[in-house]
Amino acid sequence: MLIKYLINVIVVNVVIVSCDIRKYSTQPDEIIVKEILEGCSELYAIIVERYKNKIFHTCIGFLHNKVEAEDLVQDIFLQVYVSLSTFKQLSSFATWIYKVAINAALNSIREKSRRSLLSSFTSILNYQSLYNENYHVPEENFLAQEEAERLKKILGSLPEKQRIAVILNYYTDLTQKEIANIMGTTEGAVESLLQRAKSNLRKKYGIYRRKD
């Protein structure tokens, strides 16, 4: 569904050069990008297929919401397609597309925070109705949901670089070398970020537990 949607959007008003997708299915990303830029727009389906799950897991790590992550994935792939000509092969295509995804996710979080601030007064007014809804949820389910929300808040409170390192490390199958390339740093720096993040997560989780 995602691939069909994206290709339908992409090929509107575009003159397509006929290409055999099967011929390119095992080619490196960089070769496929070159062919796309030369007119084989339908080859973008290969890029989407290769990266859709990886980008989705990355978005989930930042947004913690399946529907929002799915919407953002579509936006990211459209943005990537429009920006393909800016890919200069100074790094791997994988590194480049992850950077696009991370920036899009961070921008989405910032926009969501602005909207949340504007709606905070409404949220306070709706507190009573929210309480009444939760009252009917089985206690064990409500507690599990509460714990998940707590963990999401803790992860979201990490410094940005630590949060990115943690998400790329635990929500994707990237190696530390690949994470370092995406973040524009060294493997040692990534390891340091992960260690500091783990320490902060333990401390913050302990604080939350003591508040109960």
What's the N-to-C terminus distance?
Answer: 44 Å
The sequence of SSEs as H and E is HHHHHHHHHHHH
Uncertain residue ranges: 11-16, 117-137
| Annotation field: number of helices | 12
CATH topology of the largest domain: Rna Polymerase Sigma Factor, Chain: A
The total count of strands amounts to 0
Oligomer: single chain
The CATH homologous superfamily of the largest domain is named RNA polymerase sigma factor, region 2, helix turn helix motif
Q: How does this model look, in words?
A:
Helix content is 76%, strand content 0%. By secondary structure, it is mainly alpha-helical. The protein folds into two domains: 1-118, RNA polymerase sigma factor, region 2, helix turn helix motif (Rna Polymerase Sigma Factor, Chain: A, Orthogonal Bundle), CATH 1.10.1740.10; 138-212, Orthogonal Bundle (Arc Repressor Mutant, subunit A), CATH 1.10.10.10. Residues 11-16 and 117-137 have low confidence and may be disordered.
Question: Which features characterize this protein?
Answer:
76% helix; mainly alpha; 212 residues; Arc Repressor Mutant, subunit A
What is the strand and helix layout of this fold?
Elements: H1 2-10, H2 21-24, H3 29-37, H4 44-63, H5 66-82, H6 93-118, H7 120-125, H8 127-135, H9 139-156, H10 160-170, H11 176-183, H12 187-211
Helix pairs in contact: 1-4, 1-5, 4-5, 4-6, 5-6, 6-11, 9-12, 10-12, 11-12
